[in-house]
Amino acid sequence: MASRLQGKRALVTAAGAGMGQAAARAFAREGAQVIATDVNEKGLEAIARTPGVRTARLDVLDQKAVEDFVAATGAVDILFNCAGWVHQGSILECTLADWDRSFNLNVRSMFVMVKAMLPRMAANGGGVILNMSSVLGAGKAAPNRLAYASSKAAVQGFTRALAIDHVKQNIRVNCVCPGTVDTPSLGDRIKEFADPTQARKDFIARQPMGRLATAEEIAETFVYLVSDESSFMTGQAVYVDGGMSL
Q1: How far apart are the C-alpha atoms of 98 and 86, rounded to whole Å?
Q2: Distances, alpha carbon 246 to alpha carbons 59, 213, 239, in Å
Q3: Confidence class for position 206, pLDDT limits 50, 70, 90
Q4: Which of 24, 26, 78, 94 has the CB geometry, 3.0–4.6 Å to 10, for a possible disulfide?
Q5: Would you call 9 helix, strand, or coil by DSSP?
Q6: Pairing of strands 78-81, 127-132
Q7: For residue range 86-110, what is the model confidence (pLDDT) as tens digits?
Q8: Could you tell me which of 19, 17, 13 has the C-alpha nearest to residue 34?
Q9: Catalytic (active-site) positions
């Protein structure tokens, strides 16, 4: 077993699939004791027996549930806010409900989680917060991603503001901006297209490397950003996008 996160406690949201699950596995591999959460308990079954991983249901849209969960869990050394949702469509296809869901899940859930956990982390001597952003948002747009890109741009601002406010409390905050990653979420969105085969080809074509990322390779960046290897790094948006932002 590697030991880059030995002795650390980590809390991961949206660990039932995709990058959240890959992060939970990678953190545990590096020696962390991982609390892997998701609203979908079925998805958590895939990692329930992973050494170093404890699973729990958590709906990050439920403020009281989050506050109660954090109170029961206590301080962690690593908080990875991975939960999110991708709305497909321009402003013409985006309802107010779609807009609100995008910001509630992609931004508000982070606010609620951090507000509950950060004081405990600070009292415990500090820690690392990692937020999930996207290549789309603050620096780049793509067709039919209005609500998603807007919310992910907000994540970058949220990350920088947290970082400067709490750097003196030994809390580092960064966010990751992946390109297109081959996850169950992407697969579900591809199925919604009239021609799923062509849609997958189109997603691949927008990646300069000519392929999609795997959740596991993105998770290696997560490990770096929550480990002591990045100890002088805070307030940064780290792009791992196969050149999509170039």
Answers
A1: 10
A2: 36, 16, 10
A3: confident
A4: 78
A5: strand
A6: parallel
A7: 999 999 999 999 999 999 999 999 9
A8: 13
A9: 148
